[in-house]
């Protein structure tokens, strides 16, 4: 029966001699694979669609928010926990403020936001 340690030792001895004999493939192939994978990831191959998924379901202006509220009144969700805004266990609130004077950073808006933050927290 062949000793396992002798087989492992012989394998690494042979592998070392191969790397020493032909180092160029071992130096070029890993960075080349990394560059190819990075290029594929950053190109538009529909691998990263996380930004588009939330944009579809979240209202982005006050009109869309009103329409969302109207739809929720017409068709109330059966499972409130399932239809709540939650990503990977982290809940969040969506807040749209429309100011008559055009100033979104007035004291009334900030107190409303602080109250909302304290209730969510």
TrEMBL record:
- This protein's GO CC annotations: cytoplasmic vesicle membrane; plasma membrane
User: Which spans are transmembrane here?
Assistant: 22-42
What keywords were assigned to this record? Membrane, Transmembrane, Transmembrane helix
Top-rank lineage group of the source organism:
Eukaryota
GO BP:
endocytosis; molting cycle, collagen and cuticulin-based cuticle
Q: What is this protein called?
A: Uncharacterized protein
User: What is the native source organism of this protein?
Assistant: Pristionchus fissidentatus
